[in-house]
Design brief:
The protein is an alpha/beta fold and 393 residues long. It folds into two domains: 7-184 and 367-387, 3-Layer(aba) Sandwich (Rossmann fold); 196-364, Glycogen Phosphorylase B (Rossmann fold, 3-Layer(aba) Sandwich). The protein is 43% helix and 14% strand. It is built from 16 helices and 13 strands. Helix 2 (66-95) runs parallel beside helix 3 and helix 7 (215-224) crosses helix 13. The radius of gyration is 21 Å and the shape is elongated.
């Protein structure tokens, strides 16, 4: 049967799928020794070959069945749980992992993996980038009661924000460690603010827009856009259908929308005059707004472009931007307040330079290799294992 593998990674989303969870995991697991992991993941979606990791992979489903599988999750998660459990059990018996890594928020994979870990007496580590109560989907509500048991039985438990550490700790009655968003491609020196003539008169917004997460805050920016000094253009780059944007009144004069490659996206950010980071004020998904930190924020922070945060005061996003000084925070649900803040950020060069410098200070503490090594040690990799990847600290 061969030697046992070190780690069986269980996560519905995993690179090279281009999703927020996949990007988070890519930053952490790219620093693991290439022969240390076997991956058990869901079907590939939004494939990006540049995110591929060198581990042996097994996928439950294919790209062509991904949509069917998503519908099945929503309607019959408990039934699919049995199929995923049997599949994971076969992989665990085959590879005999010394540890298992379970990733939230997906309940079917997380619960099935936990069942296998208990059945075969395999220590497991769990990482929350959301709690199930933070997600309104039916499949999460059906099985949310299990997350406390899974967290309590883990050898180590991590969460992606301070707020989630507090929430999961309260649910599980245990210490939960911070394992935040990280970044690998960190400039050697702090970026300097580009002169006005070197950038485009553009406000940049990256990512997918959802009614429960950010639509109302984007609508507010579109309303005040004609009143801003210099009449900047708003670029919205992400997987947003134009009909969807029109339905919410976002395709107005001065707004440009489209989908570009990651390379083109980063280049567009660096050419922009301001980056916009919005969260909803409508409280349709209040717990998620409070505890979430958008993955794209890490890309914004290394761009050398000032960031405008428009989000509720109690959100993790507003808290970190305010506490660390890397973004101008407008936490009022008010058009005039947003217009005043955006106008100031477009014209106040001292403020703009200060935000860019503090953004680098913040992101310098999020070096992916450093945080990856914490996770490696939690998963039982020792100094010789780390030496296989060319790094010991």
């Amino acid at each position: 049967m061969g030697r046992s593998t070190d780690i069986l990674i269980v996560s519905y989303r995993f690179p090279a799928s281009q999703t927020p969870t996949s990007i988070i995991l890519h930053q952490l697991f790219q620093h693991f020794p290439s022969d240390s992991c076997v991956v058990a993941a869901g079907p590939p979606v939004n494939w990006d070959e540049s995110l591929r990791l060198p581990f042996r992979e097994h996928r439950f489903g294919t790209q062509s069945t991904a949509r069917w599988l998503e519908r099945g999750y929503a309607r019959s998660g408990p039934i699919l749980l049995g199929a995923v459990h049997a599949w994971l059990l076969g992989l665990a018996v085959r590879y005999r992992p010394r540890r298992m890594y379970l990733h939230f928020p997906d309940p079917v994979f997380a619960i099935a993996g936990w069942m296998v870990a208990r059945q075969l007496n395999i220590p497991h580590v769990v990482y929350f980038d959301i709690t199930w109560k933070n997600n309104p989907g039916r499949r999460y509500r059906q099985m949310a009661f299990m997350q406390g048991r899974i967290a309590r039985s883990a050898t180590d438990c991590f969460a992606i924000t301070d707020v989630l550490c507090e929430e999961v700790g309260a649910i599980a009655g245990r210490e939960v460690q911070l394992l935040p968003h990280t970044i690998t491609e960190l400039p050697e020196a702090a970026p300097t603010l580009a002169p006005v003539e070197a950038v485009e008169n553009v406000i940049h917004l990256a990512g997918t827009l959802y009614p429960a997460m950010n639509i109302d805050a984007v609508q507010r920016l579109v309303r005040v856009l004609p009143k801003l000094p210099g009449h900047p253009r708003l670029d919205i780059f992400g997987r947003n259908d134009e009909a969807h944007l029109r339905r919410y009144g976002l395709m107005q004069e001065g707004v440009n929308a489209g989908l570009v490659s990651r390379h083109e996206l980063f280049a567009a950010q660096r050419r922009s005059r301001m980056l916009y980071l919005p969260f909803s004020f409508e409280r349709k998904n209040e717990d998620m707004i409070r505890s979430n930190f958008p993955t794209r924020a890490m890309e914004y922070l290394v761009s050398g472009v000032p960031i405008l945060v428009h989000a509720p005061r109690d959100s993790q996003l507003s808290r970190w931007a305010r506490e660390h000084g890397w973004g101008l925070v407008i936490d009022e649900e008010d058009d005039d307040a947003l217009r005043a803040g955006a106008s100031r950020l477009l014209t106040d060069e001292d403020l703009r330079a200060s935000l860019v410098a503090k953004a680098f200070d913040f992101v310098a503490q999020r070096n992916a290799r450093t945080w990856s090594e914490r996770l490696q040690r939690a998963l039982g990799l020792t100094t010789p294992d780390l030496e296989r990847n060319g790094r010991v600290t």
